[in-house]
User: Fold these one by one.
Assistant:
Number 1:
Amino acid sequence: MAAAWIPVLCLGVCLLLLLLPESADSQGAVPIAITCFTRGLDIKKEKADVLCPGGCPLEEFSVYGNIVYASVSSICGAAIHRFSSSKSLDNIFFHFSCSEHPKIEFYLKNFTSAKDVLLAIKEVGFRGGNSNTGKALKHTAQKFFTPETGVRKGIPKVAVVFIDGWPSDDIEEAGIVAREFGVNVFIVSVAKPIPEELGMVQDVAFVDKAVCRTNGFFSYHMPNWFGTTKYVKPLVQKLCTHEQMMCSKTCYNSVNIAFLIDGSSSVGESNFRLMLEFVSNIAKIFEISDIGAKIAAVQFTYDQRTEFSFTDYSTKENVLAVIRNIRYMSGGTATGDAISFTMRNVFGPVRDSPNKNFLVVVTDGQSYDDVRGPAAAAQDAGITIFSVGVAWAPLDDLKDMASKPKEAHAFFTREFTGLEPIVSDVIRGICRDFLESQQ
């Protein structure tokens, strides 16, 4: 019998090269003896030579698809279905090859017509490999959905993941990353594991760990790969329901962040520039647009000055340019009045906004007025406060202003140059609080 390639989906896609037993001898290979029910996932190698026993019964296998999908059956079962329609085979030697790396076949921007997309899908090559669904989903969330690859502003990001059987790697972290990047993940599971196979499943709740929300809307099941046409319309109807795409909202595109910047005399011009750099480094991370994140800034001494409000600028470039050009005021320090001013004049006009509200207070000294009452009023109004203190800023004031838990929302550095490391802490805190608010 001539050598032939057998495509098999072994909780992913694995390729099997069928060879006669004497071919193994000629190549000096030492095959691994497997059972009739060994599956691709059970072999923890990228490549392996395997030997099927004789007498594997055809009737005990369920192999799906017209190319031989063996994720819920076995390597040997795949061979029987491929080369024999009514009887088992004698001992068979295979070369088994699996690929572990996700590959993007084409981007959103590559084709503009349904006809071209269909042709491109038909040209997708058979790769091989375990179903590293977690790795593939994380790669897709981080690399696929970008403006450079064709993502359009205001259009939901959707990933439909087809899983035959179950994932061979951890999918929970990938699901978290996808939600953080605003990707609405749908899981279409095919041929769920039977009770006898549950012991081999890394996480039986893998669907709930990956989908956008665990409300049933983002999960879909097909019993097998036969007759899939009837499942297409209900799935498409879900994908076209934009108002249900709850994961399109992320901490990067669905927040209002106001910066309350201390312009008192103790700061000084050069240190004030370092404060503005700190504000810019936080602001530039967010997706600022007319339908996305909004940024505002207020400078304060004894008086307050709105440098720009949430509705003044709708591009990141304009926001960053305005921050760079803020003029230093100089004066005293009345942080409590400044919080009240910001809540009333900056957050007041956007009180009906769907975005979550954050206030970042940056100060270098003790306030001459009470901060506890104004901060509590702002938090009661739904504004989460981060307090960042430098030099002589009292820790008690920082904690009085900060939202709970205090240790996660209050930061201090002795030097203005120490503001830079706090940038990532504030960004992580905003994203953490946003995700918790969406639960």
Number 2:
Amino acid sequence: MGQGLPKAVTSVAVKRVGGTAFRVGFAEMNGWRPSMEDAHVIYAQDTWGFFGVFDGHGGDQCSGYIARRITEELTSGGVPSDDAAVTALAFRLDKEFLDSQQPSGSTGTFVIVKAPSTPGGSYSLRVGNIGDSRVLLGRADGSIFPGPGTDSGLTTDHKPDLPSERARIERTGGNVQEVMGVARVNGDLAVSRAFGDAQHKTTGGPNPEDHPVSAAPELKEFECGPSDFLMLVCDGISEGNFPNEAVVKLAAEKLKAEGKPDPAQAAIAVCHEAIKCGSKDNLSCMIVLLGGGEVPGEQVEFIPGPFEAPDNPAFRKAYSAMAEHAGLSLSQALEKRFSRCKSELSLADPASEAAKELKLEIGQYGSGPPEELQEGSTERVDWFNNWLESSRNSTENAGLGDGAEPEGGGMTRDQLWEMLQSNPRLRDIAESSGLGLDRLLIQDREEPMRSVRVAKLEELKPAVEAHSALKWDDRLADACGCEGIVLKDDESDGTAQVRFPPPLGFKAWLPTSMLQDLSQPCKRVKACEKEQLKEAVEAHSALKWDERLAKLSGEEGLVIQQDKEDATLQVRFPTVSLTAWLPESTLTYIEEREAGSEAPENEGERAG
């Protein structure tokens, strides 16, 4: 999945829900991802409850929509009566989301719990799963109930290489490809069941379960006792070296640690441990205790993590978004974090690494807020808001706004472009899957980006200082003689914005005259009409028709590679976010209509 931020956002948004039948604790953490895409449902009634975790991918639209609509349906219609009703609800909400034509998809795992009619009786569980989030059942002694699912869970991960899932995918017109060691539906999606993901529901049918990716829940029924507890976790909890048995054991230990069990504290501990075990995904953990009562602590709580990359826009955005999950602004979150740092520092060993890190974090605020300002007061929050504004202004005045833009280790658009550019096969897989990367990465430009080399220091500095729209920054000296990628050209003042890969890792506007062009523009071609295209592809021994290719009819694209042996070209079509190998006979060189053109000389291995 990759590391999306320079530092993980380890702030935790917490919810606690008590009642007559259940006590629930929920914790969510952004982690290394650029944004939080998970959603959840806690719907606890006197005799039953619905609890769910929905793990989004490709955006948070689908997960948020499904969680909201499930809550609305439960409020208006009550608990679904049986498996058929649950399945019908899942299909109906999936269709609603698909009809809205929004991007993204989401897995979902949930459990409907019915309390016993008599004290001391068994609880009835209807467990449902769509994708690879999990439901676990723990016992008071810390052991896991040996469920029939993945890693002793109650649910089974729906992966494309699961024999039953592969058979359904292939039967409904899809295929399973292994990409970098991971089985994926149509070479794209790493789960075989999900809400949304419209691009994988175009073949098969007409029934909603008969598509390569389906929102059909796998349902099972169980019973448990009042001392047991339920855990619902997204796959971010499970993706590192953190097996289900260890997840349950840690939760049980934390539940016993306090006089009155706090499932939220246990859920927080699970999220932090998952990060330590190597997870790079969003993290969501819900713990449901059976039996009513109050849950100790605040109903909604925000526990701020280290603010370790203040100059990185992506980190700031993710940190702020997590604070908003608990109803706080970024300045309110930093005010809480500052107080927490001060408190932890007062208890830490002055010579410890923890104390050094806390001092470093506190030090970024200079002398800090005046001591007479009360913790949590509006005036103290305003001080941190002013610090944020001052920090942004300082960054811009140092040339980081109109000059260079450091990006830390964040997986920004430009870094993603560079990563894919250096790995043609990965790029081809991503683009051919319909992810829209061309639109994302080249900003709907007519021309492809180009590589350039910066002039020597003795030439660059005078040129920058002589330009009315530019200002010299000493860091630009490090870029002299280095190669970068042109992101934007401004012909009005003869400048270009260039991105430099790590270790420089910044963008800068420079005089175009100081840049040596290292790349030649790609050849532009136009695809023929659908009927001719389909006939030619089906007739070619090395190619296979895919309905997505119909979108290429009449579209213009950029030639990436040529295979002279079988007379095919690999072409990237930015307007429809698709890259494909096509017979050369189906393509017309646009330049040829004006001044003849030869096919490109470069050859490369075809992406499968």
Number 3:
Amino acid sequence: MLTALQHLAVVAGLVALYYLIPLGDGSSVARLGVAAALFMLGVLVLVWVFGRHTIAVAHHDKKARLRTLLLIVYVVTIFFALGYLMVATIDPAQFAGLRTRTDALYFTVSTIATVGFGDVHAVGQLARALVATQIIFDLVILASLVGAYRAAMIREDR
């Protein structure tokens, strides 16, 4: 069971890792292909892990399910920020306003929060497909978080 301090440490560690991962200049088409393949593999792994773990803990520990979903939100945030950054590094025309790691993280968080200020947005087809993938993933996670929270609170009331 992770405490609030441990969750904060996980978030801080993920953000530090995000800013420290070297990406290079992204000028190679081969690099884009490898990055895209690794990113898609990562999405599939996240979906598989998310599905298996959520099902495994759903019936036994409702609060554990909620904590797991929160951890997934943290990881997915960094994961998509890296994806956006890789796409923008290799082809800057894919995004308007996305130039730095902070821009990518900001865009990811505003997409998760469904705020969408419009200062950073997808322009190219690859970027739009990536954003659509994140939105679908976020909707599934949000629905799961609401369900897990509700289940944990109902169980606590009994």
Number 4:
Amino acid sequence: MVSNTGRLNAWLGLAWLLLCLPALADGASLEARVDRDTLYENETLKLTLTGTMPFSMDISQLLNLSDMDLPEPDITALQDNFEIMDRHQKYSLRTVNGESEATIAWTYQLAPKRTGTLSIPALPFKDAQSDPLSITVQSGNAPPQQGEAPSAILEVTTDKDAVYVQEQLVVTIRLYYRGNLIRGELSEPELANVLMEKMGKQREYERVRHGERYRVVERRYVIYPQTTDAITLSDIRFRGRVRNADQGLQFLRERADKVTVPVSGKPDGFSGRVWLPATSLEISQQWDNARQTVQVGDNIERTVTIDALGLLGSALPPIEPSYPEALRSYPEQPDTTADVNDRTVTSSRTEKTTLVAVEPGTVRIPEIRIPWWDTVNDRQREAVIPARTITIKAADDQAAATAPTRGDSGGDPAPSTEQPSSEPPASEPGNRESGSVWFWIALVLGALWCMTLALWWWRNRDHTGPEARPARPDDERALFRELLAHARRGDGNTLQLLPAWACVRFGRDDLHSVSDLLAVHDDPSLEHAIRQLQEHLYSERVDAGWSPEPLVDALRRLRETAPSQEDSDDSLPPLYPQRLGKL
């Protein structure tokens, strides 16, 4: 009830003053005073301006209160040296011996903007002005009174005294305060040439220091210097208001002590291509097929991952594995992640690649070796994935390819050991007779052979059937229809059916893969269509509008331009006709 009565009296006094202000006479005065003239830069001072004015009451203004302006001093020049933390004002009226006088008091809570000797200039008020005041501001925080704990403490710490360029540095800011915090602002580090991220959420807890229980606000930041310039944390500030145990308001201004961390360049002994300072770094791989033997046309998915502590994901380099020509690679977009918790940064980079076996043989996938710098033990280490050997076999429907046959004798004829004579041998009558007999025998046999061939040709001239030439497999058309069906669907079986159909169509047995077919038939449009299909199957970067029509058209052109065994009339007749034995 007392409080409500006080508010009512204050409002009545203000209303009364507003009624009287239009009739205020000249002769106003303004007095300035402070509660201290020496303070530390983390402290505040109270400035009180008191203005006194004579007045005469004008009842005619009762109905025009909204048109009345309450006068106040011009404090623009005051803000050059001081920050106004809070302000309020109060009014009083009194009449002595028939003379009425109004008094207005403006109170400002000021925080110095710098150290040294600061001036509170003369401040104007109506036709009066205040006297200037001089204030001395000392650097640093005010020491606590004897036996009294400080009202607030602001400290900045780092987890390392020195770092390398691009090495992780954790900065912790803690604000300790007593009482109930009503309002407060805690600044964040402002640094140039660094990458900085906040670590986790702000923590709040309680601690005992100087024998008093404090409430603590903690913030953590991770910083990665990008140059060798030293990191200087020098402008971390807090300002706010707390309500003390006696329910009084207290203004707090704290500034943390400066912290400097030197930054070194990359060590000369580091041999890696990319500088990677980390707490730990590992590289691993996964295969969707653990077999050491695959077939031409098989797909193998390989996943390689780098895991690191103390590095951002953006700092992890591309893995860039190399593969032999027998394996065609289709890499996907890399996946990079980083988890910034309240202790450190955990990051990873994952690269997936689909490998397609295109040539038979034994291939070796080289090792992957990534040098990195161990910041805990201050030495170079290497993360390694060992090499792997894979055997690629021909596809099952192509494994029947045979090697070229030799002559009927099964080998090359042995060279003759007889040496030609420098003189012709002497003719003997017996030898001459035997030679002439064998001559006539050979002549008769040759004539019989020619007659046999002529008779065979005459009997077969009008009814050359399927036995007279190699038979074409009946399933060529069916195989081609199946090939087109898979091509239209855009599935992986297309790449396996294509060489199998080509072997039948071209009458060859050496087309084991798509690469073999493209090597024999130089068709840029077919090669381009096959590349598009492979990207459609194995790459995430493929255009969503892929169409099978270019591949289908290329396959049809290939079938029309390439003669099959059925269409070929230029093949030589067999050396030994199949029906010769029936004569």
